[in-house]
Amino acid sequence: MSKATPIGLKLTAAAVLLFAACAASLVTAPPALAKTAVPKPVLDGSAVAVPDSYSADTAQQIFAEGGNAVDAAVAIAFTLAVTYSDAGNLGGGGFMTLYVDGKPYFLDYLERAPQTATRDMYLDDKGKAVPGMSQVGARAVGVPGTVDGLWEAQRRFGKLKWKQVLAPAIRYATDGFKVDARLQKARDDAATGFAGKTNFDAYFANLKAGVNFPQPELAQTLARIASDGGREFYEGRTADLIASQMYGHGLVTKQDLQQYKAIWRQPLSADWNGYQVVTAPPPSSGGVGLIQMLKMKADLKQAFGGLDLNSAPYIHLIAQIEDRVFADRQQYLDDPDATPVPLDKLTGDAYLAQRADEVSPDEVPGAAPVKPGLADATAEKPQTTHFSVVDKWGNAVSNTTTLDGSFGSGVVVDGGGFLLNDEMDDFVTTPRAASPASASGTSATTGDELNTIAPGRRPLSSMTPTLLLKDGKVALAIGTPGGSRIFTTIFQVMTDIYDFGLSPADAVAAMRFHHQLLPQKTIYWEPYHPLTGDLAEQLKAKGYMLEGQSFNGDVQLIRVDGTTPQPVADPRGVGVGKVFQ
Ligand code: DON
């Protein structure tokens, strides 16, 4: 839309004026502003930790225009759909954990299976999974939730006009933005897998480091959403474009889009270490996993006593905890609208104390009987992305959003200019009954139908946008991409800060490792902080195998220390932490 640039420019100019006015108000506190219904600031500033610099600039504009954390979060998410194309999205989904006016909320805008999806849709006639079918191309696409999620959040809690929060994204799509080396590398890595199978190259061949990258079709889509509202994506011209793209290739129809609604759910909450943890409930497995890990570690205080952070005995105890957590994940977690999940039990003190009792420094890795892990749980691909926001009024947003794989299914909506997800791959795509020789190869358990594909069902996610509250105030906003590594990463950063007293920056930079039930006895390490030398030898002597993984995580956190927000962007990525006075 040709008007997009002038709107963007006008808003930038308005933003500068407003910013100047706000800056002046800090000094003179003019009564005209004081009389509005704007609550008094309780923090020294607003802050963000975001995965790229463009989204940080967007946040600056939104705060300067008087927006709150939710306005900033929605504007950041739309910006990332333009500037962080491998994970930011319109055609994906995610979770948002919020704290607004002293109350916690959770918004589930995860993708859902289309109405004609079937349990065995990725199997051939011999019951074997067709390689790549749930990951690349139109059949991998679930009904996207992002736009409805952002629309719901902003309508309910935002202070600015809807058009204002879309303006920065429209500007980046219209004028382009300078591509960085990270994004080009992600593009190059993904392009090979999509070659000849999707229209990815027609849209992203020119994504080159140092080069300006405008996306005119995406700008038009964003402009339509800006002028007609979030439901345009589900009921307007954008819905028509998605349905045409899918027709004859994928399953998502106009009816699927019309029926999609983001859902406000009760966030998962637990007391830990003097804080209230507010985190993601099912269909995420991450909140349950995080709470289980935190509480079991606290129960095992004696066993952990005196152990150095990331020493071999420390890693061993955490790995034993992780075995229990991933066994429960496999056995009990699902879309709560498909299967009731016993949340109170799984996160209850008595149960977790009993589970922690099973953990011992002498346990031989892999010797204890374990329940099967998810067949594809270790095969996480980058990318997903997370950002955290707090505003000076004490509101906070922790948001994780995903296309699942890097650049999703590789399918771009022709005429719409945006990528569609491959979130269907998060279902159990090879149910054991249909394929007894699948990776776990174990006998049937009550978990066998869990997380299989069914119309309208949500896949089990690991995204864990989390907040910590202390005395009713936000103390931490945290999250990361990383599939099943998401909550083990958040756990490590939280315990590094609160149990070991590391500064937030040191905690985010510290070594991280990952372990889960299957493959047994395997400790994964990350390129950023290889696990080598004596430590590696000690773990091997204990019976573990060490395996490097290609993905590092990308934690974006904000700790609030008294009234001072301290944002930290993971040094593994290209993110930015910024405070806005
Ligand atoms: O919902 C989930 O858990 C996955 N779709 C997230 C994928 C992910 O984090 C990959 N990123 N590294």
TrEMBL record:
Positions with biased composition (Low complexity): 431-447
Catalysed reaction equations from the record: glutathione + H2O = L-cysteinylglycine + L-glutamate; an N-terminal (5-L-glutamyl)-[peptide] + an alpha-amino acid = 5-L-glutamyl amino acid + an N-terminal L-alpha-aminoacyl-[peptide]; an S-substituted glutathione + H2O = an S-substituted L-cysteinylglycine + L-glutamate
SUPFAM superfamilies assigned: N-terminal nucleophile aminohydrolases (Ntn hydrolases) (SSF56235)
Pathway(s) it belongs to: Sulfur metabolism; glutathione metabolism
Binding residues annotated for L-glutamate, in chain numbering: 426, 461-462, 483
GO molecular function terms attached to this record: glutathione hydrolase activity; leukotriene C4 gamma-glutamyl transferase activity
Residue ranges of the region described as Disordered: 431-457
Keyword Metal-binding attributed: no
Documented EC number(s): 2.3.2.2, 3.4.19.13
PROSITE patterns cross-referenced by the UniProt entry: PROKAR_LIPOPROTEIN
GO biological process: glutathione biosynthetic process; glutathione catabolic process
Residues spanning the signal sequence: 1-34
Active site (record annotation): 384
InterPro entries, per database record: GGT_bact, GGT_lsub, GGT_peptidase, GGT_ssub_C, Ntn_hydrolases_N
Keyword set includes Signal: yes
Record-linked Pfam families: G_glu_transpept
Modifications made to the protein after synthesis: Cleaved by autocatalysis into a large and a small subunit.
Protein keywords: Acyltransferase, Glutathione biosynthesis, Hydrolase, Signal, Transferase, Zymogen
Sequence similarity: Belongs to the gamma-glutamyltransferase family.
The protein's assembly and partners: This enzyme consists of two polypeptide chains, which are synthesized in precursor form from a single polypeptide.
Name of the protein described by the UniProt record: Glutathione hydrolase proenzyme
Organism placement in taxonomy: Bacteria, Pseudomonadati, Pseudomonadota, Betaproteobacteria, Burkholderiales
